Amino acid sequence: MQDDALSTASSVNAARLLDSIQTLARFGAREDGGVDRPALSSIDIDARRHLIDRALALGCSVRTDACANLFFRREGLENLPPVMTGSHTDTQPTGGKLDGCYGVLAGLECLAALNDANIRTRRPLEVVAWTNEEGTRFQPGAMGSSAFTDPVLIERYMQARDSEGITLAAALAAHRDAFPSLATRPVQAQAHAFMELHIEQGPLLELADVPLGVVTGIQGVRWYAVHCKGAAAHAGTTPMHARHDAMTLALAVRAELSALAHELGRDDTRITFGRWTVLPNSINTIASDVTFTVDFRHPDASVLHAFDKQLDACVERHAVSREVLFAHPPVEFAPSIIRRVKDACNALSAPSMNITSGAFHDAMYLAKHCPSAMLFVPSRGGISHNPAESTGDDHLVLGTRALAHCLVHLCNEAP
Ligand code: GLV
Ligand code: MN
Ligand code: MN
């Protein structure tokens, strides 16, 4: 069995893997070399058709579910719960070729390598393309993976609308029309394990000059919108003492939240005020309404809770209001799967280091469903969500070999 893992890893075909990344990137290619492929758009549906054809050619069965996740299944020798791997194929509007796509294409490459090495595994192996991880077209993100692990969510998601007013329900109907003969994957008992290979999207592996990151968990996240109310008035005539300026108020709240986050979270704090909406947004009118978003992340749940409490106190002190947009606790991956990932790195004589994911991923939800973990490869310059996102070919191939090694071991585990 050990030999099967190494033979599959060495059957990973570098040219085929790298070519598959370039080929998928043609769907939604941007002129600057990046990719813009919104979830369930017609471009995404074309990309999905390409992936389905590829999986069928590899001898897999293809199924879908209520959130249009795609499951490419290679049968095992026994009818045991499957091992799953995969990621997402939707992109940010200024996305690169690798975020998400690498994990799906590396999974397909592992299926091809198993075929080439003529290896049958005990358990089935399913490669999954999860729908709408980015949350760019429909919010929230990671819709497909969260609806898979918690099927009641789909009812709520159905009402989500994109910027043109198209509902998720309508987008899912378009997907069904595009692939009328796809079988539905039943909501099933727990999978045996889930393993997601992804680019790091940050600088740590590159700075340490280490090619593989064994991801032990994902930091927790809070998303808020803070609404600050003022009164519109003339910018030239209204004395400074007589103003109710929503922007002045918003900047004071922002400064307090930033100081709070740094004090509570120290070096591990990540705080971002990324989206601002200003009314009436006029050069010579004092702002009447300012809404800004807060993205606060930290690996320690107690810091996240303390931030929640102190944000509420700050909001009350300033008489502004806040809305919770999203919250997720820190995730710790399963020690049994982390061990498999480390074993794979060691078996390939590849240096590795433990790392906590700063970004969230589909594995954050799969970890609720079955023992899960992730593997990272370096991102050049730590750049992601950017057309310039890139990873060295050697690293892409090594990550896929380590994934193959890990999957074969997991697929051969006893019930
Ligand atoms: C998703 O990629 C996130 O971490 O924001
Ligand atoms: Mn991703
Ligand atoms: Mn992303």
TrEMBL record:
GO terms for molecular function: hydrolase activity, acting on carbon-nitrogen (but not peptide) bonds, in linear amidines; metal ion binding. Its cofactor is Zn(2+). Pfam families: M20_dimer, Peptidase_M20. Zn(2+) 1 binds at residues 88, 99, 198. Residues 217-321 form the Peptidase M20 dimerisation domain. Zn(2+) 2 binds at residues 99, 134, 385. This is Allantoate amidohydrolase. It comes from Caballeronia sordidicola. Binds 2 Zn(2+) ions per subunit. Keywords: Hydrolase, Metal-binding, Zinc. It comes from the Bacteria. The keyword Zinc applies. Belongs to the peptidase M20 family. The keyword Metal-binding applies.
